Amino acid sequence: MTPSGAWVASLPGGAEMRAGSRLSGDFSDPLAPAxxxxxCLLADAPWTWLDQxxxxxxxxxxxxxxxxxxxxxxxxxxxxxxxxxxxxADCAPVGLASREGVIGAVHAGWRGLMAGVVEAAVAAMRSLxxxxxxxxxxxxxxxxxxxxxxxxxxxxxxxxxxxxxxxDDAGYPALDLRAAVGAALSAxxxxxxxxxxxxxxxxxxxxxxxxxxxxGRQASVVWFPGQxxxxxxxxxxxxxDRGV
Length: 244
Fold this sequence. Notes:
Elements: E1 7-10, E2 16-19, H1 33-42, E3 47-48, E4 50-51, E5 58-61, E6 70-71, E7 74-77, E8 83-88, E9 92-98, E10 103-108, H2 110-115, H3 117-127, E11 133-137, H4 150-160, E12 165-167, E13 173-175, H5 177-187, E14 191-195, H6 209-212, E15 218-223
Parallel strand pairs: 3-8, 4-6, 5-7, 11-14
Antiparallel strand pairs: 1-2, 2-15, 7-10, 8-15, 9-10, 9-11, 12-13
């Protein structure tokens, strides 16, 4: 059953990515009782939350619910009963999976991309036995709403190619975040197989820091549906960075 307001993508190995929206709940404070209830509705399994800092740190989750609150921007696991979650309000949530039953979740903002977080997550999956890695890209900000400084844009383009260079609605330089994620995946031999194609800035169904200075966050979860559900209690610290 698809949760209310969620975008769902099937991934190899029986995995699934569920990208929530406002309708799925506000996951900005994992300690809030309402957030815990929403978590169970989105994916009823022990969640691993991260203290996201726009870096390239990847945690390896060795049991369901492990590494909650770890300072990192990606998590990977072979545990079939684990659920890996990232929270966003404009940045890109990326779900990863392989036929060998290894999954990953990545919080990909431009700084994390420049730090190599996507490549680091794929490498960590391969260290757990993943072969070919497939990816799903959830809702994130579109280039027409993502004005960017020319200097920073040139840095991203130098790493990931001119395909990341765009213009916003007023003609100013802008970053194509989806293109940058796609380039990062290609750089490490991963394949994008599903894309929500939803702009968080334009959609009234999603939280957006750029559009509204929203403090709410949607969650995206990678897990193996059909595994035994487990109600989750207290989970992780609040994300410190508002520009997610």
